[in-house]
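Write out this protein's structure.
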Amino acid sequence: LKELLQKEESEELNIVLAPLGQEEQQSCFYLMNQIRKLGIACDMAYEKNDLKFHLKRASKLNASHTIILGQEEYDSQTVIVKDMKKRTQETLPIKQLVSHLQKINNGKQN
């Protein structure tokens, strides 16, 4: 039973947002609200703008994905979606992020 509970917990979709600047942080507030509306756990650190800090924090929180929004992504209206378990990442238009996460979440629930 303990192994089953651990497996279910590790398959749950939970997100850490990683804004790398003040402008990016404002965009991440909006994204966080949209993600939470889907019923997906989402967190963001407010005190640092360092990518290494955000990735370590996401790892400590056992996040399934980290959404990275730096100046380049902000300017091009994209985000980097990093799968923390598979150690892969992809760049998506920011407008497609919520539907992308919804698809991932629906796949994990089946």
